[in-house]
Amino acid sequence: MKKRMGLPKAYLVFLLLAMYLPIVLVVIYSFNVSKLSSVWTGTTLNWYRALFRDRDMFEALRNSLVLATVSSCAAAVIGTLGAFGASRVKLPFSGSMEYLSMLPIMIPEIILGMVFLAFFSLIGLPFGMTTLIIAHTAFNIPYVFLMVKARLAGFDNSLYDAARDLGAGEVRTFLDITLPLIFPAILSGMLLSFAMSFDDVIISVFVTGVNTNTLPIKIYSQIKTGVTPKTNALCSLLFAATVLLGFLSVIASRGGKRQKNKKTEE
């Protein structure tokens, strides 16, 4: 019996080590004096100082943040409206439409990047931030669509019908009833889209311009010349920011639950 209980614990320890040990090593070697990650020669903060003096790196970070934010917001709007329309309107070919909407997830990224490259070249659209936003929005839409569609599958239609019986129009019913109930799914889809857009390399390489650089492409291009601990410092700061945002979201969610419980008790 003890052996059976020990196997899940061992698997959990192995899983945690496989997930977080590389991150810990990246953080540790961001303080390494040597440029080589395989050689430890001392502790220093010079790589963090060099990082904050690197304008190109922070410009690439800014481009990635803008790209991920705009594309995830656009995908949230389009994916939500598409999922809501698919749930309300039943057409003979609705199943085929849902299948087509999920194709960007199933198609390999290198093929999707070549498709976008050919399409933008065909219509004569200059490559840059515009083409990046369009391409990232296109492959982010299915993530929001699937999240919202799953949430709408368990939606209580009696709430919608009650609002219509009370005289609310289509838009008012959607804004006051449907949108608040599906907002957690929209937010989840947006966060997933943001993450997918922020770290995308393959599609971005095909559709980016000469003067437009994103952080993943910037780091990928440094592989040819050698990645310095300055990149490790940037990754460490991004990881710390992610942990901080996750911690703040947990605190906010707990505060919201406490307020709801107080209102319920009153």
Structure description:
- The protein is mainly alpha-helical and 266 residues long.
- It has a domain at 60-209: Orthogonal Bundle (MetI-like fold), CATH 1.10.3720.
- 79% of the residues lie in helices and 0% in strands.
- It contains twelve helices and no strands.
- It has helices at 2-29, 46-52, 55-88, 94-101, 103-106, 109-123, 129-153, 157-165, 170-198, 202-207, 215-221, 229-265.
- The longest helix is centred in the last third of the chain and has 37 residues, at 229-265.
- The protein is globular.
- The N and C termini lie far apart (48 Å).
Summary of the model, kept short:
With 266 residues, this protein is mostly helical. It has twelve helices and no strands.
Q: Total strand count, please?
A: 0
List the total number of helices: 12
Q: How much helix, percentage-wise, in residues?
A: over 70%
- Architecture of the domain at 60-209, according to CATH? Orthogonal Bundle
> What sort of overall outline do the alpha carbons produce when their principal axes are compared?
globular
End-to-end separation: 48 Å
CATH structural fold name of the domain at 60-209: MetI-like fold
